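User: Please predict the structure of the protein below. I'd like the answer in structure-token form so I can feed it into my own downstream comparison script.

Assistant: Understood. Taking the following sequence of 285 residues as input:
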Amino acid sequence: MIHHHLHTHKKTALCALAFSTAILAVGCKKSPEKIDLTSTHTTAAETMAPTETPDETEATTAEISESSDDAANGGAGAKKVSTKTNTYYSGKVSIAYPDVLNLSDMQKTEAVDALLKKNALSVLDAWGIQPSEDTVNISCEVLSADRNRITVIYTGSYQKKDAAEPTYVMYSNTIDVDNVSDIGFDRFADPYTMAGYVLSGDCTFQAPTAEQKNLSPNLQDEWMKVKNETSLDAYTNLFTNADFPVSQTFPQSFSYEHQGIIYFSIPMPHNLGDYAIVIYAPDSK
């Protein structure tokens, strides 16, 4: 088990149970320390707003139960919060993102929707995507949604025009609905504590995606070796600068919390899938 010294650094307040990722306030972040891994594929952003020729089509409407009862959220007849998935199309770009349904405050609904869409599409600038030349395919999964918090995971890939292979990506976004703001890593755990956990023998990874599995039959074993090539300070800095909002550089790590478990990504070399997702269960440490 992880050393007791680490355990004392862990934040006691995980805040709420819901998948999250994003950032508490729209405060300015320092650029994260460069991690010496070949998976750092974020290129300098080109100042281009995505040309929106999209058909933003509704794909699915997912009903997601609320964690609190209806009476506390607008009366016994209040509808449960749900989401619908839209897709942004432009050239070779396809990015899915959610809209929220059944919030009683229409103005807040519009603000939350705008923040979700802004963050979902922010990768276009961050990666310097030219929709007519570069290929982007991103899908979204809404892990949880209620009147307090919305947690979304984005996974997929992008491939620049001259790249031989696609880059696999994962980013996430947790929204504080009441404040219409992003929630970030430090709401779930202490960056220094998690840096120590990653470097420990107790570190556990989420199973790789189907695409990542094709790269190596023993990918998780490879991740266990590579993770220790990064220093404690570098990981601490990485997690301190994780999640939305985007400041000077696109975050290299994203986190969320779901059903009491904390998940966060760390960069990996391209031949090992570009990223790995670490799992931390506070109650078991």
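That's the full token string. The helical segments are 4-9, 106-121, 123-126, 191-199, 210-213, 219-226, 232-240.
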